[in-house]
Amino acid sequence: MAATMIDLTQFPHRTEFSGTSEENVAFAKTFWQSVQLHPPMESRLVSSDIRQRLKVAAPRSQVKVVRQVPKDEAPDLKKFFVRAKTIEKMEEIQRLNKLSQCREEDLQRLQRQRQERIRKDLGSRERRMQSAPACLSHSKSLTQVNETLEAVEEIKQLDIPDYDSDE
C-alpha cells in the first residue's frame, strides 16, 4: 500500500477557528505543524549531522625508523652468520643444479623417443612402399569411387522437390 501526500496549502479551503480562544488556536497550529512531515535526512543537500562530516586527517609527520646496532657484536657470531648464509646459498645452488640435471635428462629421453619413432615410421614406410606399387592404381580408383559416393550422398541429403511428377 503506497502512501500519497497531499499538499493542503494548494487548496482554497482552509480550516478557520472562529469563536475560539487564542490559546486553542495556538494549540491547533502547533498540532498541525507537528503533524507536517519533514523530508527525510537523505533528501537534504547538507545535513547538520556530525557523522556526515569527513574525519580530519592527522597532520603528516615524518617518522624516522632508527635501527639500533649493538656496538659490541661478537666476531664469532658474525663468522657464524656468514658461514650459515654461505651454506644456505650452496644448498640452493645444489638444488638448482639437480633440477637442471633432471631437465636435461628429460630432454634427452624425449629426443631418444622422437628419434626412435622416426626410425620406426621410416621402416614401416619402406615396407609399405615395397608392397604398394601393385596396389597403387587400385587405391587411387577406390578413393575416386569414395569421393563420388560421398558427393551423391550429399546431393541426396538436399531437399530438392521433384519437378517431374504431376501432383
Show the helix and strand layout.
Layout: H1 22-35, H2 75-157
Task: Give a quick rundown of the structure.
This protein is mainly alpha-helical and 167 residues long.
How would you sum up this structure, described in words?
- With 167 residues, the protein is an all-alpha fold.
- It has a domain at 81-130.
- The protein is 58% helix and 0% strand.
- The protein is built from two helices and no strands.
- It has helices at residues 22-35, 75-157.
- It starts with 21 loop residues before the first helix and ends in a 10-residue tail after the last helix.
- The model has no long low-confidence stretch (mean pLDDT 76).
Give me the number of helical elements. 2
Element order: H for helix, E for strand? HH
What is the approximate shape?
A: flat
What's the overall average pLDDT, rounded? 76
Helix content: 55-70%
Radius of gyration: 50 Å
Please give the number of β-strands.
0
